[in-house]
Write a structure and sequence with these properties.
Length: 294
């Protein structure tokens, strides 16, 4: 297999994927979207990677990681151009279904699949801010509709806190969610429909977010049948083959907080001693390895 990972070459997860690919005897490299050119020349589409025209010996499988919101249209165009040139794309949601990437859409898709989610409201206009007091009990969570690593997620204890949080960005870029009080979160890692393990994520003192960037700690934990079933169903509902499903137990029920499309796994591997990268390579090996270009 000749594997092309679209992402950040310095990402620890991508480094591990390349290491495992090479251990399995495959050729693999990471390429950032900014290293890729694509367009139409003389009525024929082209893709160039590091100024080299895509050809049959360059890659068999493309795996999109570290996708940034500002490049979403480019990722979609690239994924579908890869498929037209018979390069297997390991991210089915970029090809097989209408692709929408935001936290509101995710909550709505999960709810439609009868999976447990926190109550969520998309604020499209200032007039909707006043409805927060009718729909929710305080505290509530205000978070960007796009975003990662816990950035700009706020806990709001009053409606004035909500107004203050929403005033920092353009209307229509945030959602409100009910706050589910719990001492820790869980992450279940799913690869190709299999839940391979779980960790408990404990926030740092004084913090409600359990992101590693905010000094939360990861520890291995037993994965219950409920956690496994929810995680597998969530990844399937969103067409995500490699997913980190974050959930929280509140009042005896497990709720999905988020399904990460491009989850890091450095801390997960350290806590569980599960070789996540090897599971990912095994999944990528399931794709055909001969894709002559049209």
């Amino acid at each position: 297999m000749k594997l092309l990972v679209i992402g950040n070459s310095e990402s620890p997860g991508n480094v591990r994927i390349i290491e495992e690919a090479e251990k399995h005897g495959h050729e693999a490299r990471v390429v950032h979207i900014e290293q890729i050119e694509m367009g139409v020349d003389n009525n024929s589409e082209f893709i160039k990677i590091d100024d080299e025209l895509l050809h049959a010996d360059m890659c068999d499988v493309a795996f999109f990681r570290d996708m940034h919101p500002q490049y979403i249209s480019a990722y979609l165009s690239l994924a579908q151009a890869f498929e037209r040139q018979l390069v297997a794309v390991a991210n089915p949601a970029l090809i097989d279904v209408p692709f929408v990437w935001n936290k509101l859409h995710q909550m709505m898709k999960l709810s439609a699949a009868q999976l447990p989610t926190p109550d969520t409201l998309f604020i499209t206009h200032e007039s909707l801010v006043d409805t927060v007091t009718d729909r929710f009990q305080f505290p509530v969570i205000v978070k960007p509709i796009h975003g990662s690593h816990g950035t700009d997620i706020r806990r709001c204890d009053t409606i004035d806190d909500v107004r203050s949080a929403l005033a920092t960005a353009s209307m229509g870029t945030y959602i409100i969610q009910e706050y589910l009080n719990a001492p820790h979160d869980f992450r279940v890692f799913v690869v190709n429909g299999e839940a391979i393990g779980a960790v408990q994520k404990t926030p740092a003192d004084g913090e409600f977010r359990s992101n590693t960037d905010l000094d939360s700690t990861f520890s291995s934990c037993d994965m219950t049948d409920t956690m496994r079933d929810i995680a597998i169903s969530a990844a399937a509902a969103l067409y995500i083959p490699v997913a980190g499903v974050d959930m929280r137990e509140h009042n005896g029920e497990m709720y999905i907080l988020e399904v990460n499309r491009n989850p890091g796994f450095q801390h997960f591997e350290a806590a569980t001693h599960i070789n996540v990268a090897a599971h990912i390579i095994n999944f990528l090996e399931s794709f055909p390895t001969s894709h002559p270009l049209i």
